[in-house]
Write a structure and sequence with these properties.
Elements: H1 10-22, E1 37-49, E2 62-66, H2 78-85, H3 98-101, E3 105-107, E4 113-115, H4 119-126, E5 132-146, H5 149-158, E6 167-171, H6 180-201
Antiparallel strand pairs: 1-5, 1-6, 2-5, 3-4
Helix pairs in contact: 1-6
Length: about 200
């Protein structure tokens, strides 16, 4: 066992003390995880273009409709998109859901009769211009990482204008990890405990 003398900043002292107080093994902030690393993750989406031929494979995924190239405004309900299209005027025919019109002969707003078998034909009935119909699959992108759960949560507050439905996901060091991470984690814990002990004795 070696002894060394180091100089640390006030911020380093603050975080080492907080780390030892909040993340000690078995503490609630560890979320039942050994050697935890707390990652702030941002919700993102992948979009798979809609096709009637593959619809059965995406039954459980959200189908969204948009007029924007960048999916800035998405509707998860086809009726809401039609209503939005006619928000400043009356729709000349009754607005119904796709399920209500599916496999029906319908006279559209242009006076022509259409047989509705998919969402493209549904929107044609109402004269709605749709840029994209797609299945939306969510995933999470890692944004920032922390040793201290409290700091991860604080990050979500001061960066909330840059985040969309963020979460903190706590990762462990990994099964049988004999690398450097667990040793550095233990070192930080020892330093923090010693600093807290000195403060307590002062």
């Amino acid at each position: 066992m070696k002894q060394v003398t180091i100089s640390i900043t006030e911020q380093q002292e603050k975080f080492l003390k907080l780390f030892a107080e909040k993340q000690t093994p078995g503490a609630p902030d560890n979320r039942y995880t050994s050697y935890p690393l707390h990652i702030v993750e941002n919700k993102r989406y992948n979009y798979i273009p809609y096709s009637y031929d593959i619809a059965e494979y995406f039954d459980e995924d959200d189908l969204v409709f948009t007029n924007d190239d960048d999916y800035a405004v998405c509707f998860t309900n086809e009726v809401e998109m039609v209503k939005d299209w006619y928000s400043d005027r009356d729709c000349p025919i009754e607005i119904k859901s796709f399920k209500e019109l599916e496999y029906q002969d319908i006279t559209g707003v242009n006076g022509e009769e259409s047989f509705v078998t998919d969402y493209n034909e549904y929107f044609e009935v109402y004269g709605v211009s749709v840029h994209q119909i797609a299945w939306r699959k969510e995933y999470y992108e890692q944004v920032a990482m922390f040793f201290i759960l409290e700091e991860a949560k604080r990050y979500m507050q001061y960066q909330k204008h840059n985040l969309e439905s963020p979460r903190v996901y706590t990762y462990s060091a990994g099964y049988a990890n004999d690398g450097e991470y667990t040793h550095f984690w233990d070192l930080l814990m020892v330093l923090g405990k010693q600093l807290n002990q000195v403060e307590h004795l002062a």
